[in-house]
Specification:
heterodimer; A: mainly alpha; Helix Hairpins; 2 domains; 9 helices; B: alpha+beta; Actin, Chain A, domain 4; 3 domains; 12 helices; globular
Chain lengths: 178, 531
């Protein structure tokens, strides 16, 4: 192993907790999916523990292990469009220092956002999703019925209301065309 | 490079057969034993004189010395005593399966009790000694393969087996990944391949996506009770029924006749696959009531054989459907199909697989040896510091923790690249609470009862405070072997807490040390050429 790499690895391990995932993969915040994958392969080639399996323990090996786990963590987050956009908002936001790692808290927030989008109750979600499918298939009357059902479970969900009104309008349009 | 002469061997530790391989002069070579046999029955027979017979010559003892001969140990390794697999095995295995401490499984042979890793360690000891005899010096390092669907407990137990046998296990490698490595995949373009693995006792199918040096298991499915043995059983039933009709004697009632019948059936399967017809001729298989010695002779055509086993072949495709579906693919999306396992030599399998996937299959490497060869390739590259080659494997199962009401929460998703770690914080829910208990599972259901329990961890040694005041951060790590480590720390003080594993099928360090000594003392009997 060359000395330059060793110095680099030790230095990287020092500042690991101050870097965001983009910095860890050495890519820009608007990198395309293919770039992310290529960066992941490149960093794996440098830091995969298999390449250091002949090292017998010690600080360097531990640090490489830590770095590589973080590389995987970064890749898992950034390869997923939904997680990535949430993460980007996190690290650009005021709480950047706290949110450098896409951890449980961020995941929970994401889950909540998703629920808010599709409804907070299982039944509400079910009818809402059925309504969306109806909309896609241009069955507007059935869609309106499903959105109304969804609203019986979550009367104050603004998204459900908007969709119900949208379906209602489309029914009228449909009629007038006929 | 390590020491001069430093070598790591590749071991395919199979349910029915095992195989060992090394890289020699840049070539991958399977190492035969002194009888020239290249695959070895994963059978361990404990003889009266205290020695242990392993391999093909131990196989005949399954029937003639049933109580003291252990086979298919891989079905039991890393399982809890209360699991369904263990109950199933108890119903069919003639040897004594008993319960050990912490819900573990033990095998009782006469007055001795063995853990499953100890049994597998004897198979590994045999593999190790085959290479040592061949090379003329000791070997200490190995890569051992496991099925892709093996959970943490099973991987850990396999690793323990290696240590007990005096081997440093450099890597626990997935079998389909090993097979793909042996075929030289992972060098350039991205491809999707299926590995169709029909072994002696089990069937697995894995769908892999392979890029340059990257092996990602997209999905895996299997039937743990479907394999070459079932094909033998079909022939055996046919032979026995025929003999019964002709002579009024049921050969299955006497264990020596049954053993001969079994061996004849396995041979017939191989012959009919190779030659299109099998001539079965067993002289002196039994005596009639008057004491006259009788012979068994029959002829089996390929057409007859195919009819006997067609439903078994169809069953494998049901499993293939399942694997493709969970990879969100169809057979047309695949770039290659690799065959693994002895029974895939049968023309009926080859044609049916070709037909099912709608493409030619890869079978250029002996299907009995391909996994061991892949393991040897990986072993070699792990010892080579200059190696450019590295493997990106994924965890095949979702890691979960138990929550209230019998449900679980996801911690690390399946198909996440490894090594990886993930933390979750817990707060105390009682004033003055001293302990936090966490149950860890692997599986794809949010119900705990449908997942495999890995263990129960109890953390203590954090600050004592009012409820909700003390936060403990638990870190779950999956290492490059797919093995799970759990640690915890007090969030505020950063103090690491101590951890007790309350429920575990695994062995403690002391138990492993004792087992190592026992294993080193055990002499391997040298049988005779089996066939």
């Amino acid at each position: 192993m060359d000395e330059a790499f060793e110095i680099e690895a030790q230095a990287l391990a020092q500042i690991l907790d101050e870097l965001d995932y983009f910095q860890i993969l050495k890519i820009g915040q608007n990198a395309a999916p293919l770039e992310i994958k290529a960066a992941y392969y490149r960093e794996s080639r440098a830091y995969h523990p298999d390449r250091f399996s002949t090292l017998s323990g010690g600080e360097l090996k531990d640090n490489i292990g830590r770095i590589y786990k973080r590389i995987n963590e970064a890749y898992v987050c950034l390869r997923d469009d939904v997680k990535r956009s949430k993460y980007l908002a996190d690290v650009l936001g005021p709480e950047r220092q706290k949110k450098l790692r896409f951890i449980e808290a961020s995941e929970q927030e994401l889950k909540k956002e998703k629920e808010a989008e599709a409804g907070a109750t299982p039944q509400g979600r079910k009818f809402y999703m059925a309504g969306l499918a109806d909309m896609a298939a241009q069955r507007f009357e059935s869609a309106e019925r499903n959105f109304k059902m969804a609203l019986t479970y979550e009367p104050n969900n603004p998204r459900f209301k908007a969709k119900r009104d949208e379906a209602g309008k489309l029914i009228k349009n449909d009629m007038s065309i006929r | 490079m390590g020491e001069p002469g430093d070598i790591a061997i590749g071991i395919d530790l199979g349910t029915s057969y095992s195989c060992v391989s090394i890289i020699e002069n840049g070539q991958t070579a399977v190492i035969p034993n002194e009888w020239g046999e290249r695959t070895h029955a994963s059978v361990v027979s404990f003889l009266e004189d205290g020695t242990v017979l392993v391999g093909n010559s131990a196989k005949r003892n399954i029937i003639t010395n049933a109580d003291n001969t252990v086979y298919s140990a891989k079905r039991l390794i890393g399982r809890f005593y209360f699991s369904d697999e263990v109950k199933k095995a108890q119903a069919v295995m003639p040897y004594k399966i008993i319960e050990g401490e912490n819900n573990s499984v033990r095998i009782q042979i006469r007055e001795n009790v063995y853990s499953l890793p100890e049994i597998s360690a004897l198979v590994l000891k045999e593999m190790k000694s085959i290479v040592e005899n061949y090379l003329g010096h000791e070997v200490k390092k190995a890569v051992v393969t496991v099925p892709a669907y093996f959970n943490d407990n099973q991987r850990q137990a396999t690793k323990d087996a290696g240590r007990i046998a005096g081997l440093e296990v450099l890597r626990i490698l997935n079998e389909p990944t090993a097979a793909a490595l042996a075929y030289g995949f992972g060098k350039d373009i991205t491809q999707k391949i299926a590995v169709y693995d029909l072994g002696g006792g089990t069937f697995d199918i894995s769908i892999l996506e392979i890029g340059k040096d990257v092996f990602e298991v997209l999905s895996t499915a299997g039937d743990t009770y479907l394999g070459g043995d079932d094909f033998d059983d079909r022939i055996m039933t046919w032979l026995a029924e025929g003999f019964l009709k002709q002579h009024g004697i049921d050969l299955r009632l006497n264990k020596y006749c049954l053993q001969m019948l079994k061996e004849a059936s396995e041979r017939a399967k191989i012959d009919v696959g190779r030659d299109g017809v099998a001539k079965i001729n067993v002289e002196g298989i039994c005596q009639d009531p008057t004491g006259k010695v009788m012979d068994l002779s029959a002829s089996l055509s390929e057409a007859e054989f195919n009819k006997m086993v067609m439903d078994l072949v169809q069953r494998t495709f049901k499993v293939c459907d399942e694997a493709l579906q969970s990879a969100k693919m169809t057979a047309q999306d695949l770039d290659a199909v690799i065959l693994v396992g002895g029974p895939t030599r049968l023309p009926i399998i080859r044609t049916s697989v070709k037909h099912y996937f709608g493409r030619d299959v890869m079978a250029g490497i002996d299907p009995d040896e391909v996994v061991a060869m892949g393991a040897a390739i990986q072993a070699h590259s792990l010892l080579d510091a200059k190696s450019e080659h590295y493997l990106l494997d994924v965890t095949p199962l979702t890691l979960r923790v138990g929550t209230v009401g019998g449900y679980t929460d996801k911690i690390i998703d399946k198909n996440t690249p490894i090594p990886i770690e993930r933390s979750k914080s817990y707060t105390t829910n009682r004033d003055g609470q001293e302990k936090v208990k966490i149950r860890v599972y692997q599986g794809e259901s949010n119900k705990a009862s449908e997942c495999e329990l890995l263990g129960e961890f109890e953390f203590s040694g954090f600050r004592i405070g009012y409820r909700g005041e003390v936060r403990i951060e638990v870190t779950f790590e999956i290492d490059t072997n797919g093995i799970v480590n759990v640690t915890a720390a007090d969030v505020e003080t950063g103090q690491k807490t101590s951890c007790t594993i309350r429920l575990s099928s695994g062995l403690t360090e002391d138990m492993i040390k004792a087992a190592q000594e026992k294993n080193a003392r055990t002499l391997l009997a040298r049988g005779e050429a089996a066939a």
